[in-house]
Amino acid sequence: MNRLLVTGGAGFIGSNFVHFLMEHTDARVTVLDKLTYAASRESLDGLPADRVSLVVGDIADPDVVDPLVADHDVVVHYAAESHNDNSLTDPGPFIRTNVLGTFTILESVRRHGKRLHHISTDEVYGDLEVDDPERFTEATPYNPSSPYSASKAGSDHLVRAWVRSFGVHATISNCSNNYGPWQHIEKFIPRQITNVIDGGRPKLYGAGLNVRDWIHADDHSSAVWTILNEGKSGQTYLIGADGERNNLEVVQLILEAFGRPADDFDHVTDRAGHDMRYAIDSGKLRTELGWKPQYADFGEGLTRTIAWYREHEAWWRPHKQQTELAYAAKGQ
Ligand code: NAD
Ligand code: TDX
Questions:
Q1: 111 Cα–ligand 2 center, Å
Q2: What CATH number does residue 85 fall under?
Q3: What is the residue with the minimal CA distance to atom 17 of ligand 2?
Q4: Is residue 205 a part of any domain in this protein?
Q5: Residue nearest to atom 15 of ligand 1 (CA)
Q6: How many domains does the chain have?
Q7: Among 40, 77, 182, 222, which residue's Cβ finds the most Cβ atoms within 10 Å?
């Protein structure tokens, strides 16, 4: 497991995973990333050059993927189009990258007999009612709502089929909503933090009562590392840290951190088909593989994330105006 090919390693969660590997393991990493609008080379700055290299390329291009897969022990597959709102505006790139890109990687790991870990999302299970006592488990039926989550569900099904039909050595993890450093400011938490830094108001879709199950990106990374080492081939593991909060609560925590009034936010146009609630039961991962999250306290993780965005204004500032103009055009 010494040489890892990490697709999407210049994005939010992938880059956090590469930092995790540098800090906690002796793995060597090649990042394969197309450097879309969501990527940032800076997220990989300062990492040891003898252990991390970046190849700029498309996971849907077999000529790029195949020689890289041949040359590594394991593929950890993060690359994706990841934003639900964008999938509602233009679903095409989601099908191409998330479905065709995963197919391309699967054919390559099959050809070369390599191990794959596929990164996916809890959104493949659809949503829950706010008052439903159930949480998602590995046995929950797939029921995706958006073009994004449908494309991720499609990619999961491909991985499962390649395991069963071709004996590909693969594992899958479905994680809940991540927060932490290097997350693009189009996403909920960094959008609101940077709005408040700018003296603006957070923007809540609809009533703001939708629930997300927040996990720090570092905890996602440690879970993936655990699965890479201890996970059983063909298995799916759900990753979550018991971090359920509704969006209004999160906005009010952010406002409180800046000393702003609790009602200093706007309600804006709701997302079409907006999933109500995600909630993960990560019992299998904890019981069978012995994983547990380090960030037990969401408030503390959020405080550190707010500090990070305050300290890294030069990183997000160039994207802020354009991101907000695109939202404003949709009444959001
Ligand atoms: P992100 O949008 O921040 O990063 C995605 C990365 O993939 C970017 O660096 C981008 O350049 C790259 N990429 C996109 N298309 C590519 C292509 N065709 N070829 C090569 N690289 C390409 O996304 P993220 O939030 O870091 O999500 C990473 C993975 O984790 C995704 O698979 C996503 O579905 C999954 N996930 C995300 C969350 C979350 O809360 N963000 C939760 C669960 C699972
Ligand atoms: O400005 C906003 N206001 C708002 O109320 C934005 C951008 C979002 N929201 C709401 C929508 C959701 O209920 O906040 C919640 C979180 O929104 P996103 O950050 O867009 O995340 P979500 O749609 O839940 O999906 C995320 O988690 C699962 C990731 O983007 C996915 O890649 C991952 O699979």
A1: 36
A2: 3.40.50.720
A3: 188
A4: no
A5: 80
A6: 1
A7: 77
